[in-house]
Amino acid sequence: MNQHISDSAQIGADTKIGFNCVILDNVVIGTNCLIGHSVVIHEGCEIGDNVRIDDNTIIGKKPLSSPRSIFKVDPNLKPAKIGDQCQIGTNVVIYVQCEIGSNCLIADLATIRENVIIGDLNIIGRNVSIENFVTIGERCKLETNCYITAYSEIEDYCFVAPAVATSNDNYMARDKERFNHFKGITMKKGSRIGVNSTIMPGKTINEDGMVAAGSLVTKDVTAEDIWQGVPAKRKAKVPETQLLKNNMDEK
């Protein structure tokens, strides 16, 4: 079998490892895991029990840094941690100092940058990009091709539809004043964003707020209200039957 497994790696009982894998020093892999072909797990990463990692995925990648980057890479980033019973698809890249809770599904081609914390029972869809310094709570759904910009906060039970774009820089990389306002989006508990919407820097979707499909959010979305349009404006209340408190049995 053509693979490299460091002598210092700890592999739990009943864990199966495919062809061409690279498992580096001090990696810890729990029991009953399934590691696909050509998976790379970088030094010191921790994988919980009953975790599935599919072909060609990389865990614990170190970030690159251009001389023009405004934020420099911390040389002391800690290894990635993956919780129990996670499922991680093909060609996923998870960077160093990323912590993922238990029972998460991370679909094919997703990218999760450094300094990201993701709670339990989340679904991260196909080709989702999550930039650095993002915090995600529990039981959220981020669907195909959505983009979560750096320095964003997403609380529990949030929903982000396909092709949603978020942003954190109103100055579009010019003018030093931008450093005083650099901020991603905030999604409060139970908030939702519809397909192909764009959320401008620093904006908050408040509790159970809803952004309709194709909207451009330039102001904070009020709690339990539906905002729609370009730019988005308040249109109606979220139907009582759709409020999170009336749908907890589905979660």
Walkthrough of the structure:
This protein is mainly beta and 251 residues long. The protein has two domains: 138 residues, UDP N-Acetylglucosamine Acyltransferase, domain 1 (3 Solenoid); 100 residues, UDP N-Acetylglucosamine Acyltransferase, domain 1, CATH 2.160.10.10. The chain is 0% helix and 31% strand. The strands form four sheets. A twelve-stranded mixed beta sheet has the order 3-6-9-12-15-18-21-24-27-30-32-33, with no helix packed on it. Strands 2-5-8-11-14-17-20-23-26-29 form a ten-stranded parallel beta sheet, with no helix packed on it. The protein starts with a strand and ends in a 14-residue tail after the last strand.
Entry summary:
The chain is mainly beta and 251 residues long. It is built from no helices and 33 strands.
**What is the beta-strand fraction?**
25-35%
* SS field, number of helical segments: 0
Cα distance spanning the termini: 43 Å
Could you report the average pLDDT, rounded to the nearest whole number? 94
What is the secondary structure topology, with strand pairs?
Elements: E1 4-5, E2 10-11, E3 16-17, E4 22-23, E5 28-29, E6 34-35, E7 40-41, E8 46-47, E9 52-53, E10 58-61, E11 81-82, E12 87-88, E13 93-95, E14 98-100, E15 105-106, E16 111-112, E17 116-118, E18 123-124, E19 129-130, E20 134-136, E21 141-142, E22 147-148, E23 153-154, E24 159-160, E25 165-166, E26 186-187, E27 192-193, E28 198-199, E29 204-205, E30 210-211, E31 216-217, E32 225-228, E33 233-237
Parallel strand pairs: 1-4, 2-5, 3-6, 4-7, 5-8, 6-9, 7-10, 8-11, 9-12, 10-13, 11-14, 12-15, 13-16, 14-17, 15-18, 16-19, 17-20, 18-21, 19-22, 20-23, 21-24, 23-26, 24-27, 25-28, 26-29, 27-30, 28-31, 30-32
Antiparallel strand pairs: 32-33
